[in-house]
Design a protein that fits this description.
By secondary structure, this protein is an alpha/beta fold. The protein contains ten helices and 14 strands. The strands form two sheets. The protein has an eight-stranded mixed β-sheet. Strand 10 and strand 11 (194-199) form a beta hairpin. The longest helix is centred in the middle third of the chain and has 15 residues, at 114-128. The protein is globular, with a radius of gyration of 18 Å. The N and C termini lie close together (9 Å).
Length: 280
């Protein structure tokens, strides 16, 4: 029976310096040639799915941690911040002196000093993932199409990521925005590097269900692949879940199977283990 696979991007599909291992490309292409479907299921918005990723060959995208769903180029679901919510968030972040970027399907839009502040946070994020980093690697390398100097009051912003000056920024954001979903990434609680602001009640699991309903596929035929806590709602919905070897302990504990590190052919090894690359 063909499977429907949901693959996270950062540190699951892509490894060091956002490069997709050749083994992962070959595994996905082999699986699709056998009739399996492969969708990205990522925190990235559509603007961050660069041509080299689409060129692998994919059936579609769940982006913005569930805020956007697309099947073969057709939009299935899109829930973004309202213009009023987006403006309130931007004004609050400016008021606290926090640097941020807006994540939208038509681009990533950086705040005035995000590059200088974000460079260090990006390098620290890479170090924590045990990725080789040189001191010249920063925001422009991590986000090659990021737009600087644009209007920061925009429509259809999926979510907003901001550099934390302390864990208190996250706690204060929860208090300031009770009607939004406030998250962390790049670490756990006090070790987090970034916070984010998005639509409440949206997660990867919800949008997996929406996509399955649209394509008429059974939940029993689903497999999820991820590396972070934000992937756990996807794990809970899918029939089988795989954590990468580089995943955090909580994500590994939530998975049915743990494969190798992303840079050690972990995704391809999991596809092979599950029989996705060989004919029955």
């Amino acid at each position: 029976m063909p499977k429907v696979c949901f693959v996270d991007v950062d540190n699951t599909l892509t490894g060091s310096h956002n490069v997709v291992p050749e083994s992962a490309i070959e595994a996905i292409r082999a699986a699709r040639a056998l009739g399996h479907r492969v969708y990205l299921c990522t925190g990235r918005s559509k603007a961050e799915i660069y041509p080299d990723i689409w060129e692998i060959g994919l059936d579609g995208l769940i982006g913005a941690n569930g805020g956007y769903v697309e099947d073969h180029g057709i939009e299935v679901f899109h829930q973004s911040l309202t213009p009023e919510e987006e403006r309130e968030c931007v004004e609050w972040l400016h008021g606290r002196g926090l640097e941020f970027y807006l994540e939208a399907n038509d681009g990533l839009f950086a705040s005035e000093r995000f590059e200088g502040v974000g460079d260090g946070a990006i390098r620290e994020y890479m170090r924590r993932k045990d990725r080789p980093v040189d001191e010249s690697y920063g925001v422009r390398e991590a986000f090659p199409t990021m737009i600087f100097g644009a209007d920061l009051f925009r429509d259809e912003v999926n979510k907003i990521s901001f550099v934390l000056s302390s864990y208190q920024d996250y706690l204060d954001a929860i208090e300031a925005f009770p009607d939004l979903k406030v998250g962390l990434w790049g670490g756990y609680e006090n070790t987090a590097l970034f916070g984010d602001l998005g639509v409440k009640e949206i997660d990867k699991g919800l949008s997996v269900r929406k996509l399955l309903a649209y394509i008429g596929a059974s939940q029993a035929d689903t497999i999820a692949f991820g590396d972070a806590i934000v992937d756990i709602p996807m794990f809970q919905v899918c029939a089988f879940s795989v954590a990468m070897g580089n995943a955090d302990d909580e994500t590994k504990a939530a998975a049915d199977y743990v494969t190798g590190d992303v840079d050690e052919d972990g995704l391809a090894l999991a596809f092979d283990h599950l029989g996705l690359t060989t004919a029955p």
